[in-house]
Write a structure and sequence with these properties.
This protein has 576 residues and is an alpha/beta fold. The chain contains 20 helices and 22 strands.
Length: 576
């Protein structure tokens, strides 16, 4: 164990013995040095989205102490930027989420910040909505989104209801670095006492009703008559059950059933250890019920209900659509259904499919590209709002199943997405058009795009170093070398870390914040984007190919995937 790691460990032992004997005994009983090293080799990183990590004791874990430290730091930020600051707090269905939320509420209230907290678990978009409606200075929600059950997280929002900017995050980090959480905790009253003193206030239940009404207000079809489409909806044991079901029912979708196994909140996620609608395993319970009941459409939302995945009954089987495919369909549907404003704007992340660019061009829609993270889409909405042009915004999306049309929310919103997806499906269903066939019809016009994601995990301190080494390698390699590795001539390299686009040797500045993301665009129109995950110890590689037919694109994607996996394997072996 390195010196600094051991100092952190010894400090926690000393402090826990004084303030929490139970945690002290747990920590003292751990004898495996590798385990202790992973618990203390670093401080859990506070990024632009806040904290996220495995729950447990230690500086590199999500626990009452690391959450408290973040809250003390954010409280200092709010008190330094606002005369009479206030904050809204939410939490999801994960283990310890309510505990962390109430502890944070007590800290903010004890630092003179008016604190509002939801009475029960609610979706992430409801927190974004509450910040704006209550005119708060900021917000937090305790959630690890789609991560496995052993994770939890702490997402931080600004007064616009969007996740904090890079600059704000860096300032909060500065405050956090000065905090001695164990000493500070001695000055905090209990949540219950602060509720009695009215320093903490529950958010009125009407807030959720208003949220649902504002969601219905962005209906694409504006048709709330009864519909006969049969939907299976699963909240994956998360927060979506009440708001999604209420919204769909009010929109006329009364034929909706929920699988019992995934209906109620459960932080252990017993039927889907990885509760992510991107993952087939998480969708299996819903697919089984769809087949049993002959349903038309499957909708799934992740634990904090900001991601939405779907499956469609197609020729007797259920076909899952990717986030990119749903976005292509939705943008095309929105453009056809609504009278578009002058100079309409849609926004996508740089790792999302460029196929939507073709759809946008067809309808005269400006497609803006931003870095990964929905806060950057939220920033674009805010910029339009400040310019009195918010009516130009029509749609924002990320390939990771995040969509938004409701400008009263500034984060991805699966309640919003569930509604507009159901409306789109019903529109085509009434005309005897299958959603898959509609997608292929669009592809026949713009080319058959095919996207896939390769995820490689690098846990622990050693893993972090390997990840950084791999990213450094790709940043430094020449165009000829990249061409040889991926089997196609490199045309353009987008280096978002150094904010440079290089096309055939010519350099152009990229006007986006710096982020460790690389995109390579090749002569055959394929592209590969590589970035480290912002929430897990993983490197994500996004592949996009374009073919003249569905089979061509599938074959090309398979070849590219095989090539990349082979290179990664050889690279890792060379580092052993």
């Amino acid at each position: 164990m390195e010196k600094l790691t051991n100092e952190r460990y010894q400090s926690w032992l000393k402090n826990l013995e004084t303030i929490n004997n139970k945690d002290y005994k747990v920590l003292k009983d751990i004898k495996d040095e590798d385990v202790l090293n992973d618990m203390f080799y670093r401080e859990l990183e506070f990024g632009t989205g806040g904290l996220r990590g495995i729950m447990g004791i230690g500086t590199n874990r999500m626990n009452i102490y690391t959450v408290s430290k973040a809250s003390f730091g954010f409280a200092s930020y709010l008190n330094n930027h606002y005369k009479n600051p206030s904050i809204a707090i939410g939490y999801d269905s994960r283990n310890n989420s309510q505990l962390f939320a109430r502890q944070s509420a007590a800290i903010f209230a004890s630092r003179g910040i008016k604190t509002y907290i939801y009475k029960e678990l609610e979706p992430t978009p409801c927190l974004s909505y509450a910040v704006r409606e209550l005119k708060c200075s900021g917000g937090i929600i305790i959630t690890a989104s789609h991560n496995p059950g052993k994770y939890n997280g702490y997402k931080v929002y600004n007064d616009e209801g969007q996740q904090i900017t890079l600059e704000a995050a860096n300032e909060v980090i500065g405050y956090i670095s000065k905090i001695d959480e164990f000493q500070e905790l001695k000055t905090v009253e209990t949540f219950e006492d602060l509720m009695i003193e009215s320093d903490i206030e529950y958010i009125n239940d009407l807030m959720i009703e208003d949220f649902i009404e504002d969601t219905l207000a962005v209906s694409i079809t504006k048709d709330f008559s009864q519909k006969d489409v049969h939907i299976v909806y699963t909240p994956l044991n998360g927060t979506g059950l009440k708001p999604v079901m209420k919204t769909l029912k009010k929109a006329g979708f009364s034929n909706v059933i929920v699988p019992i196994e995934q209906e109620n909140p459960d932080g252990n996620f017993p039927t889907c250890p990885y509760p992510n609608p991107e993952i087939l395993e998480a969708m299996q319970v819903g697919i089984k019920l769809c087949k049993k009941t002959n349903a038309d459409l499957l909708i799934a939302t992740d634990p904090d209900c900001d991601r939405c995945g779907i499956g469609v009954n197609y020729k007797g089987d259920f076909k899952l659509l990717s986030g990119n495919e749903v976005a292509i369909l939705l943008l095309d549907f929105i453009a056809n259904q609504e009278k578009l404003p002058n100079n309409p704007v849609a926004v996508r992340s740089v790792v999302s499919s460029s196929a939507v660019d073709k759809v946008a061009k067809k309808y005269g829609i400006e497609m803006r590209k931003v870095l990964t993270g929905f806060k950057f889409i939220g920033e674009q909405i805010c910029e339009l709002e400040k310019a009195n042009e918010i009516n130009r915004y029509i749609f924002g999306f990320e390939e990771s199943y995040g969509y938004l049309t409701n400008v009263k929310v500034r984060d991805k919103d699966a309640v919003n997405a569930s509604l507009i997806i159901a409306e789109m499906f019903n529109f085509y269903h009434e005309r005897h058009i299958n959603l898959i066939d509609k997608l292929y019809e669009i592809y026949s016009e713009i080319g058959f795009y095919n996207n896939s994601l390769i995820t490689d995990e690098f846990p622990g301190e050693v893993g972090m170093k390997i990840m950084q080494g791999m990213m450094d390698f790709f940043h430094q390699e020449s165009a000829d070398s990249i061409s040889k590795i991926f089997g196609s001539k490199l045309i353009t390299k987008y280096d978002y870390l150094n904010s440079i686009e290089i096309t055939n040797g010519n350099k152009i500045k990229i006007n986006l914040p710096s982020s460790d993301v690389l995109t390579f665009v090749f002569e055959d129109r394929s592209s590969i984007t590589i970035r480290p995950s912002g929430t897990e110890p993983k490197i994500k590689t996004y592949i996009e190919v374009v073919g003249s037919s569905l089979n061509d694109s599938l074959n090309e994607k398979e070849m590219k995937t095989t090539t990349i996996k082979a290179f990664y394997k050889s690279y890792l072996e060379s580092k052993k």
